Amino acid sequence: MAQDRRTAVVTGAARGIGAAIAKQLAHDGFAVAVLDLNEASCKDTVEAITTAGGTALAVGADVADEASVAAAMERIVAELGGPTVLVNNAGITRDNLLFKMDVADWDAVLNVHLRGAFLMSRAVQKHMVDASFGRIVNLSSTSALGNRGQVNYSAAKAGMQGFTKTLAIELGKFGVTANAIAPGFIETEMTAATAERLGIGFEDFKRMAASQIPVNRVGQPEDIANLVSFLVSEGAGFVSGQVIYAAGGPKA
Ligand code: NAP
């Protein structure tokens, strides 16, 4: 039991960007709830944290399911203490052109990103308000600006931005900030799956992406974790309601 320790929850933390964020926050001194759909899939992230001397708890939950979120929160509060940091990172893609997109793919994407961020934020805010301190970071995307084949995902990621700004307005007086990070191309299984769907080798896909990025490389999960580390810090208390594009160059 570590009630005196600061507790952070990172969703979708079994791999990719979420895993890098969980490891960074553990390094920063947080006890981290590593939450993902399947508890067993959290093992690698939890082991990496505990091997480095940190504290982590694997939590299996579907962020889009109200009862699952409630059960997860109960466990996190009991085992790590009330969270004051939440990173809504869990995400999926179900890409298709509008005329070929079925309702299930629309609903699945909107549910994981928007319903998931809503349910998690609603469950965690009480602990932040009680502590008069909180930090919420939501994962948006450059796809919020529009991206062919992603009408569901771009709508969800634009929605995350409005959601973030309203959280910032409602929760600011309780010492809680909310910000969104909108990554560009980050090398993870999600972008590898996109390359596969397009029939392009991942190395070629990355090279093509990098040629369009001013810093001349694709992003790594740690690029996003470093920004989260700042946004959840004590010193970031006057930065709220912002959307920060982390894309190796400017985005509108
Ligand atoms: P990823 O490698 O696919 O990892 C996403 C994780 O979220 C997976 O472990 C997945 O679990 C989990 N997840 C999916 N649905 C969930 C649910 N309902 N409840 C709990 N966990 C769930 O993706 P990533 O590239 O690291 O992306 C992380 C976030 O950044 C996402 O929100 C994504 O949209 C955003 N983003 C990524 C990029 C990029 O270029 N990679 C760019 C912009 C934004 P399963 O494996 O069991 O499905």
Count of separate structural domains: 2
What is the overall number of helices? 8
* Largest sheet, spatial ordering of strands: 3-2-1-4-5-6-7
CATH superfamily of the largest domain: NAD(P)-binding Rossmann-like Domain
Question: Which of globular, elongated, flat, extended, rod-shaped describes the shape?
Answer: globular
Radius of gyration, in Å, reads 17 Å
Write a compact overview of the structure shown.
The protein is of the alpha/beta class.
Provide key terms for this protein.
single chain, alpha/beta, 8 helices, globular, Rossmann fold, 15% strand, 252 residues, binds NADP nicotinamide-adenine-dinucleotide phosphate, 7-stranded parallel β-sheet, 7 strands
